[in-house]
């Protein structure tokens, strides 16, 4: 940016007025404009339907495990999503909506399902009657119960 801006200033191309463009025999109406906000998509808008589904299931299971407590819910998501990066730093999420990688979210889903199975085996087997390997798992009762998904239990290929 520094080099580009310096060159523009040296050539006198910074803050060119409309009159200067007309003097240079350029038609300002033919110059395209860049609107950075128009049509721009957020990470959420770019998220696939599968990622949104995985996020929803992570959120639902974490809510169930935490009995609705927001801090405990964040703790469950953090524990399930945590890993050490190549630089040695711990990486994690505390909110299911923050996952931008389907792979990371899938791994987290497998881990949080394992926590559900360990702490609430009856609920886990009710939701995943064939150990999470069904295309259509049973639906939970109304309330804050986790929603069943179609992802297999366990690690979905790493972090």
Description of the molecule:
The chain is elongated. A two-stranded antiparallel ribbon has the order 1-2. It has helices at residues 2-10, 18-23, 43-46, 49-65, 70-81, 102-119, 121-127, and strands spanning 83-84, 90-91. Helix content is 46%, strand content 3%. With 159 residues, the chain is mainly alpha-helical. The longest helix is centred in the C-terminal third of the chain and has 18 residues, at 102-119. It starts with a helix and ends in a 32-residue tail after the last helix.
Entry summary:
The chain has about 160 residues and is mainly alpha-helical.
Break the fold down into its secondary structure elements and pairings:
Blueprint: H1 2-10, H2 18-23, H3 43-46, H4 49-65, H5 70-81, E1 83-84, E2 90-91, H6 102-119, H7 121-127
Antiparallel strand pairs: 1-2
Give the overall average pLDDT: 77
Quaternary: single chain
The end-to-end span amounts to: 34 Å
> For the report, how would you describe the main beta sheet?
2 strands, antiparallel
